[in-house]
Each structure stands twice: as structure tokens, then as C-alpha cells.
């Protein structure tokens, strides 16, 4: 499925900032899970952070950042 959106530059920057904060949360959760030897949770949180990072990079590319 594909969704088409029209966003202003400001809206895109808001999404980038929100994704950055979300990604940091997942990375921190992965770090905590690693410290508590919860491997499955660490893997899940790391994958989520990677997917968020990829989406963030796509949005940044649209803005030419």
C-alpha cells in the first residue's frame, strides 16, 4: 500500500523532529534491554529505531538536508 501526502516544509521538519525523539527513545530502550540481557526486546527496539531512522532520512532528503 502506498499513501501520498502533501506536506509543507514546516510540517516535514516537525515530523523529522518527532521521529528523531522517537528514535532516541527506542535506542535508549534497546540499551536498557541489552543491559538487562533481554535480547528479544533489544532486537525489537533496535529494529524499530532503524526503521524510524530510514524514514527520517527519506524526509530529510526531500528537504535537501
Which terms would index this structure?
single chain, 65 residues, mainly alpha, 0% strand
Question: What would you say this structure looks like, in words?
Answer:
This protein has helices at residues 9-35, 39-63. The two termini are 27 Å apart. The model has no long low-confidence stretch (mean pLDDT 96). It is built from 2 helices and no strands. The chain is mainly alpha-helical and 65 residues long. 5% of the residues are buried. Helix 1 (9-35) runs antiparallel to helix 2. The radius of gyration is 14 Å and the shape is elongated.
Main beta-sheet strand count, sense and barrel state: none
- Average pLDDT reading: 96
Order of helices and strands: HH
Strand proportion: under 5%
Q: SS-based structural class?
A: mainly alpha
- Identify low-pLDDT runs: none
Q: Please count the helical segments.
A: 2
What would you report as the Rg, rounded to the nearest angstrom? 14 Å
Helical percentage: over 70%
SSE layout and pairing:
Layout: H1 9-35, H2 39-63
How is this structure best summarized?
By secondary structure, the protein is mainly α. 80% of the residues lie in helices and 0% in strands.
Amino acid at each position: 500500500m502506498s499513501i501520498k501526502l502533501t506536506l509543507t516544509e514546516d510540517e516535514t521538519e516537525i515530523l523529522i523532529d518527532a521521529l528523531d525523539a522517537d528514535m532516541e527513545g527506542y535506542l535508549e530502550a534497546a540499551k536498557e534491554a541489552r543491559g538487562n540481557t533481554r535480547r528479544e526486546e533489544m532486537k525489537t527496539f533496535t529494529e524499530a529505531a532503524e526503521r524510524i531512522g530510514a524514514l527520517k532520512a527519506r524526509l530529510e532528503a526531500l528537504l535537501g538536508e
